Amino acid sequence: MEFMELDAACMCAYMQLHLYVYRLRLIRRRRRRELRRAAGGAEMAMLNLRLHLENRRILAENERLRERAGALHRENLALRANLCKAAPPPAEAAPGC
Description:
Blueprint: H1 2-85
């Protein structure tokens, strides 16, 4: 009987040790997962910042181009008005006068 009780005690200690090791592995796995997520979050934040800055640069360039297009359009209208003022006879008149 003593042998079986000792066996049961050993099995209990073995199971406790096994459970302890399992919990340690689980904790380590969770820590690794959290670290990976944190690293991925930092990379995502950096990518987000880069895209935000690129977007602002594109918007600024778009605004400059819009202003330049407006200036060219006004210049075109002024040149057409000057052309129409000094227009030759109606047969050779510039279109849009």
